[in-house]
Write a structure and sequence with these properties.
globular; mainly alpha; 171 residues
């Protein structure tokens, strides 16, 4: 009997083009939103694509983000949040608009994908909120961009810097 390969969340979502479409629609909303516009008004034009590539990589897609930023990829992403002093209202609104955009562009809406996607978005935005309160980037050379598969659970962790360390059984 032939085994069926289970697609990654990235593949199930529709590939990099779908993530780029998602972030394009999403950041158009962000720039019109009274809660988020002040945070993003000076974002560079390529920001949307960078976020798409980060999300794709986290959901087990190609390592476009890591290829662009090399060994400093995670440090670069975390660094975008350091010192921003984001508020919970902003985090919640970011999640709300992203999920609304996911519906609009037709990301898969089956419970397995949406629970995986929503879990990563909730986890990631909460980590970003924590990091935004810091004055220095806590990432180390041992940390990497996490992969988020089907039914993943991350944390809890005591320190922000431990969030992305490769576990002994992953080496």
């Amino acid at each position: 009997m032939k085994e069926t390969k289970i697609p990654t969340p990235y593949e199930w979502a529709g590939g990099v083009e779908k993530f780029e479409e998602l972030t394009d629609v999403f950041y158009q909303k962000v720039l019109k939103d009274e809660v988020l516009e002040p945070v993003f008004r000076h974002m560079p034009p390529e920001h949307s694509k960078h976020v798409a590539h980060f999300l794709a990589e986290v959901l087990m897609g190609p390592k476009f983000y890591s290829e662009e930023y090399g060994g400093e990829a995670l440090k670069h992403m975390v660094g975008k949040h350091i010192g921003k002093r984001l508020k919970e209202e902003q985090r919640k609104r970011w999640v709300e608009l992203l999920m609304e955009s996911a519906d609009e562009i037709g990301l898969p809406n089956d419970p397995e994908f949406r629970s995986t996607f929503a879990a990563h978005i909730e986890w990631g935005t909460r980590v970003a909120l924590i990091n935004s309160q810091l004055d220095e980037n806590p990432t180390t050379e041992e940390e990497q961009i996490p992969e988020w598969g089907w039914g993943e659970v991350k944390g809890p962790y005591e320190i922000v810097g431990s969030l992305f360390q490769q576990k002994k059984n992953e080496q």
